[in-house]
Amino acid sequence: MSKAAATEQKKMITDIFVEGARKGWAIGTSSTIPNVMMAFIIIKALTITGALDMLSSVFGPVMGVVGLPGEGAAVLMSAIMSMGGAVGVTVGLLSEGLLQARDIAILAPAIYLMGSTIQYAGRILGVIGTEARYYPVLFGICILNAFMAMFVMNILV
Amino acid sequence: MSAHDDQKVTLGSYVALAFAVVFFSGLLKSTEWYGVFDFTTLNGAFGKLLNGISTGAEGVVESTATTYRGTGGSGALDGFLFALGLVPTCMFALGMINVLEHYGALRAARKLLTPLLRPLMGVPGTVGLALIGSLQSTDVGAGMTKDLADNDELTDKEKNTFTAFQFSGGALIVNFFSSGAILFTLTDAAGQSVPGSIGLAVAIMFIFKVVGANIMRFYLNFASKKTETEAETRLEARNV
User: Fold this and answer.
1) A18 found inside a domain
2) DSSP A98
3) Contact list, B215 vs chain A (CB under 8 Å)
4) Which of A90, A126, B156, B165 meets the CB 3.0–4.6 Å disulfide criterion with A122?
5) Own/partner pairs for A70-75, CB < 8 Å, 24+ apart?
6) In chain B, how long is the greatest CA-to-CA distance?
7) What is the mean pLDDT of chain A?
8) Is residue A2 part of a domain?
9) Are B138 and B145 in contact (CB under 8 A)?
């Protein structure tokens, strides 16, 4: 066993937990809070301008297939940009009473399956060196995955 | 995680993995003693604050309670206060993940998954480590995949199939447990708590990551057949 591995073994379980919790604090303060706060501002802006109503009536029929109100589309659109942001939008809509508890369970896996894809196109596809002609297929698979997951969750919960 | 992770998978690793599955599944969610093995039970709840007092019918004093966030807020201020309440869940989840990872839960998962990779996705067992790495960090997963492809351990088709697995739900474990897990601790305006569980969501996401990889695999099969047929047609046209 290497020296590094030996010291790793000696760590107390409490130290390991605290180390992880510290990571959680870092993510919470540097990602969750700013993302959720921004999402609440966007929702407020969309509500005041009436854009949210418009969005929900346009996407209502599509989202209805997976048992969601039209507002669910706002969550999915923000997911493409950022997973954390989409969670912010979700909780914002929940606290406005526009999404119900069950809607959240349906949306949760979908947010991640199609989440942060714009960012990950660079960080995954770019690094691996995926040929450009496969990009649309890969984006399509993410969106399809999200819709299939919502369909299944709609049956399960 | 390095490309050559030679740490042993022990019985303890499997125990850690089994514990992780039970802990986040919500199966033992309860106020009984066994609730100690459930994430949402241990995560607990914020206390309530008095919100208002009114005199109801027949002079009975009635009170309403609210969380520390209060009621009727909106915009940036409400968003900040709400988000602050999400931080402890995120800290607890990542603390637990760190402990479970330390005791080998992910190594055990890798060991169990490796022989299944070929039948499940048509990729070789050698991607096992990259797969587990990609659940924690997109950069680790992508870097290791590139290495495997550069060393000819993956064919082009296998590389693209495996890329589809990573691209949908990138860095699933870290991303989901740092923000999505929170969703399963919420209640809506009607007081209903979110149904399902963290474990169910993780299982669904993992299944569809595999499904996505297979869609890519079939697409690549179809595309290569099409190219072959086109090439043959061209060849025949020339021979005529």
Assistant:
1) yes
2) S
3) 141, 144
4) A126
5) A71/A98, A71/A99, A72/A99, A72/A103, A72/A106, A72/A107, A74/A43, A74/A46, A75/A99, A75/A107, A75/A111
6) 101
7) 90
8) no
9) no
Cβ pair A94, A88 in contact under 8 A: no
Residues 68-87 of A with CB under 8 A from B: 83-84, 87
For residue A98, what are the domain limits? 11-156
pLDDT (tens digit per residue) in A53-99: 898 899 999 999 999 999 999 999 989 988 888 998 998 899 888 99
Instruction: Compute the distance between CA of residue A129 and CA of residue B149 in angstroms, rounded to an integer.
Output: 10
Which residues 134-153 of chain A have a CB within 8 Å of chain B? 134, 137-138, 141-142, 144-145, 148-149, 152-153
CA dihedral B155, A122, B170, B214 (to 10 degrees): -40
Dihedral class, residue B142 (left if φ above 0, else alpha if ψ from -120 to 50, else beta): alpha
Contact indicator for B79, A39 with CB cutoff of 8 Å = yes
Kindly report the nearest CA distance between residue B88 and chain A, in angstroms.
8
Q: What is the ipTM of this complex?
A: 0.86
Domain residue ranges of chain B, discontinuous segments joined by + = 11-28+89-239
In this structure, are residues A31 and A112 in contact, taking their beta carbons and an 8 Å threshold?
A: no
Of B167, B188, B209, the CB nearest to A138: B167
Report which DSSP code applies to B47.
Answer: P
Structure tokens at A50: 């009436």
Q: What percent of chain A has pLDDT over 70?
A: 94
Residues facing A93 on adjacent strands: none
Report which of B31, B174, B114 is spatially closest to residue A24, judged by C-alpha positions. Answer: B174
**pLDDT, position B19:** 93
- Is B87 an 8 Å CB contact of chain A? yes
Q: Number of A:B CB contacts under 8 A?
A: 244
Distance from CA of B59 to the nearest CA of A (A): 32
Q: Please give the structure tokens belonging to residue B84.
A: 């602050």
| Greatest mean pLDDT range, A36-50, B74-88, B204-218 | B204-218
Report DSSP state, residue A11. Answer: S
**Structural domain includes residue A5:** no
